[in-house]
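Researcher: We're reviewing a set of sequences before deciding which ones to prioritize for further study. For each one, I'd like a predicted 3D structure that I can look through quickly. This is Alanine dehydrogenase. If possible, include the structure in token form so it fits the rest of the review sheet.
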Amino acid sequence: MIIGVPKEIKNNENRVALTPAGAQELVKRGHTVYIQHTAGEGSGFPDELYVSAGAQILPSIEDTYGAAEMIIKVKEPIESEYKLIKEGQLLFTYFHFASHEPLTRAMVESKATCLAYETVERPDRSLPLLIPMSEVAGRMAIQKGANYLEKPLGGKGILLGGVPGTLPAKVIILGGGIVGTHAAAMAAGLGADVIIMDVNLQRMRYLNEIMPANVKTMMSNEYNIRKMITNADLIVGAVLIPGAKAPHLITRDMLPTMQNGAVLVDVAVDQGGCIETCKPTTHQDPTYVIDGVVHYCVANMPGAVPYTSTLALTNATLPYAILLAEKGWKQAALDLPELKTGLNIINGEIVYEAVAQAFDLPFVPVEKYLQD
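Model: Here's the predicted structure for Alanine dehydrogenase, in token form for your review sheet.
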């Protein structure tokens, strides 16, 4: 198969979808790998490393899309890329369709096959291609939150872990999944007073067993959220419903009850955000303030640590990319059912129900395309 890796062009996105090691694994299996010129530089992988691994360098994004049967990316295509996508081309990347109607409609019109990292789901409900970036984002949420709690950056001027004779910051984490768990571990390690709020008692029992003593769990409901946010210093939104838009757990009317200089970090922004006042921001302009509350809602947080993120992502995606290249998307999805759930759009039809429901668009069961 001919595989293309374009350079990411979303604002301050420095990751690349494939490392030189990943390219070598595909090439040695007989596949052709095209890397757009300088695609890996932001992650610390110059063109020379890809050439040494057997890949070929193409000068432009147009050449890369034009040559490839399968495009492997990190972030969803942006508007300038829509016209480059070909009918029948396989796109393997993060899409987060349910939060972006123009992208959804553009991919329907392209008649490409869209296989989304974030909805590849194993029988145990785990999301193997979302986990590595969730781990990075969860840890970064605390780093960034601690940073923006500093007074010069708009925060209330509190040190996350405090010092002897002072109280540590109060951190609320909405959601006890991968993002929430890593955020809690990071915050706890810095000495903060942490509460994880979730709706799954079994998950909370597990978290109680593995987390240090300064992490507590609490049932997530509107009453408890309203009560707890009034004295929170840092709140991390870490809610995920696979493939669907995130619910608003903190609503606009709650903000006036919060402390001036408190910080909200909404990691769910890719899926529409679990904080009603959330709107996507960039690393270039990451925050805004509403009612005295600092909002950090960068939609590609792991892009700020591209070397770590690219390695972690390729570790997870490469086995699937190899299978797709070896067998094609249809046979791969038949052989490995978790890839079936990754299929979101095929030949102009939405085959992932949550995406269709988000915009009241027609839905076609994916089985239509997987019949022998």
